[in-house]
Design goal:
The complex is a heterodimer of chains A (275) and B (292). In chain A, 81% of the residues lie in helices and 0% in strands. By secondary structure, chain A is mostly helical. Chain A has a domain at 76-267: MetI-like (MetI-like fold). With 292 residues, chain B is α/β, with parallel strands linked by helices. Chain B has a 6-stranded mixed sheet, sandwiched between helices. A 3-stranded antiparallel sheet of chain B has the order 2-1-4. The longest helix of chain B is centred in the last third of the chain and has 18 residues, at 209-226. The radius of gyration of chain B is 19 Å and the shape is globular. Classes of the chains: A mainly alpha (275), B alpha/beta (292). The interface between A and B is medium-sized, with 21 and 24 residues.
Chain lengths: 275, 292
């Protein structure tokens, strides 16, 4: 009898910490569901096309897209187009982000700069950036510069707005310390304002990459002879629907990888925010 | 005053405000005899003159009124008052972080404008070390405006880290430290640049009582070695009495000087043992009466 009683007591004790078990097994199946979900949708898609419930001229089956993906990759065109688009996005991003961040820092800390720039930014920011593509083509011609500048302009405003907000949320004490210790202006900007605003700056960078992809791809629709955007547009004009899908998948993959890279960079650059 | 190196000619606007009271402020209490043992080059002698300082906020609130105070070289002065009496504002004005609406504050003494030194350093109440800099970088950052060789800076930072017992944490980020340790870093930063004057704005105000008294003891130990001129703002009566040579008691809105009480304890002091002295209790009760 005693043994049984002890055993149940022990079970009772050990049962306490293991109460999380059902929870974690639920978490495991939840994770599997997350991974499986896209494949389930793809399988359904394949099935519906195969039984002719979906018009395969508009919705080619995933297997057909994969087939075209392989052909596209083997021709070497896939890598070239992806890198072309990526470089347009990244070059444009840096051209826009660096001055945008600097102006944002000035606007955040200096009320005169803010008073001057605030209305200008407010007026220009809401313009759909894609709407100024014709203007960019007029100014920079059909070459790379027009794509860089379109991406850069979109990124610029996002960085200005986010950096300014970042500087303004820096606690006054950090500014007071810099004043009390007579920190030099350059150090003040690079070692107090910029790191202080960095969480917001990073939010701006993430938004900017998203917008950069949209603008980069859109600019390639009409004003390019290469790149993923061109491939999508060309897929429509030449009725290469599978190729269109392949390029769309590549754009989405590009966005996913850039975001993942940024998340890692953020952890590396802002170590004080993850205790 | 005769042998004072302060050149009045260099500061023509400065004259001692009239009135006996003001003269009394300048008197140094007996407890500061030991200060003379520390030899300072005359060039570093410092004096802070607060002349008829007033501060009125744009809302019309009078924060400070008729503040006259002369602080001598090497003095440890506590400014005490109820919260909202403007004591922090007074300190911010002294540290040029805020403007007085009337009167003026001079920190006089040759050597103040030296290239390799700051005239003063400030320790704040809130966490004032930068969360994005490691402990060592936080202290080194204070040398930013000084043209000092890097090796010398490193040496000084090491020394101060040793003094506050944080050598092991030189490469830690502030979020890895406790509240008391963060304030130690702030104190180390202030002492590292070795300014003639230290302004401390309730530096231990946000800490628990034990840490607070412990850090006050450490502060005194470090201070004994250097005998800097310190203005220490606090709302802790016992803290003020245990640390200061003189306690300046401010009244509430508008902040005026009610009385300046010389604290007559010999140095070096132990802020814990001091609390057992009968005279300590007398000082505390006297200040309590003033604040009532």
């Amino acid at each position: 009898m005693n043994d049984v009683a002890e055993a149940t007591v022990e079970q009772g004790l050990t049962a306490l910490p293991t109460q999380h078990l059902p929870k974690s097994s639920f978490a495991a199946s939840e994770r599997w569901l997350r991974i499986a979900a896209p494949f389930i949708v793809l399988a359904l898609w394949e099935l519906i096309v195969r039984v002719h419930l979906l018009d395969q001229r508009f919705f080619p089956a995933p297997s057909m897209i994969v087939e075209d993906f392989i052909a596209y990759a083997q021709s070497g065109q896939l890598v070239t187009d992806t890198l072309t688009t990526l470089s347009r996005i990244l070059v444009g991003f840096f051209i826009g982000a660096i001055p945008g961040t600097i102006l944002g820092l000035f606007m955040g800390i200096n009320k005169w700069v803010r008073a001057f720039m605030d209305p200008i930014v407010s007026i220009l920011y809401p313009i759909p950036k894609i709407a100024i593509l014709p203007l960019m083509l007029l100014i920079f011609g059909i070459g790379e510069a027009s794509k860089y500048s379109l991406v850069a302009i979109g990124v610029f405003f996002l960085m200005v707005i986010n950096t300014e907000a970042g500087v303004r949320q820096i606690q006054q004490i950090y500014i007071d310390v810099a004043r009390a210790y007579r920190i030099k202006p350059l150090s003040f900007y690079t070692r107090v304002l910029l790191p202080g605003a960095l969480p917001n700056v990073f939010a701006g960078v993430k938004l900017s990459i998203g917008v950069g992809i949209i603008l980069g791809v859109a600019a390639e629709f009409t004003a390019a002879k290469s790149g993923l955007g061109f491939t999508i547009w060309n897929g429509w004009q030449t009725l290469q629907v599978e190729r269109m899908y392949v390029a769309l998948v590549m754009v989405s993959l590009l966005g996913y990888l850039l975001t993942a890279l940024l998340d890692e960079t953020e952890k590396l650059l802002i170590p004080w925010l993850r205790p | 005053m005769g042998s004072s190196p302060i050149s009045v000619a260099r500061f023509p606007n400065w004259r001692r405000p009239p009135g006996e009271e003001v003269g009394a402020f300048v008197q140094v209490s007996n407890g500061t005899d030991k200060r003379k043992e520390i030899e300072k080059p005359e060039a570093q002698m410092i004096r802070i003159n607060v002349q008829d300082v007033g501060k009125v906020y744009s809302t019309g609130t009078v924060a400070l009124e008729n503040i006259d105070l002369a602080i001598e070289d090497g003095e440890f002065v506590s400014v005490l008052g109820p919260s909202g009496c403007g004591k922090s504002t007074l300190l911010r004005i002294m540290a040029s972080l805020d403007h007085a609406t009337s009167g003026k504050i001079d920190i006089v003494g040759s050597g103040i404008a030296a290239k390799d030194a700051l005239p003063f350093a400030v320790v704040f109440q809130e966490v004032s070390i930068y969360p994005w800099m490691k402990v060592r970088d936080n202290i080194e950052f204070a040398f930013d405006s000084l043209s000092m060789p890097r090796a010398e800076v490193r040496k000084r930072v090491d020394q101060q880290l040793e003094l506050v017992g944080l050598s092991k944490f030189a490469k830690a980020y502030p979020h890895q430290l406790s509240g008391g340790m963060k304030q130690r870093v702030a104190v180390a930063r202030a002492f590292a640049v070795d300014p003639p004057v230290l302004f401390m704005d309730e530096p231990f105000g946000s800490l628990d009582e034990q840490t607070r008294v412990g850090l006050a003891g450490e502060l005194l130990q470090i201070w004994e070695r250097t005998r800097k001129t310190v203005v220490f703002v606090t709302h802790g009566i016992e803290e003020a009495v245990s640390l200061a040579d003189r306690v300046v008691v401010l009244s509430k809105s508008p902040g005026r000087i009610k009385e300046i009480i010389p604290i007559d304890f010999p140095r070096p002091r132990d802020p814990v043992k001091l609390r057992g002295e009968p005279k300590f209790g007398e000082y505390v009760v006297r200040i309590w009466d003033l604040l009532r």
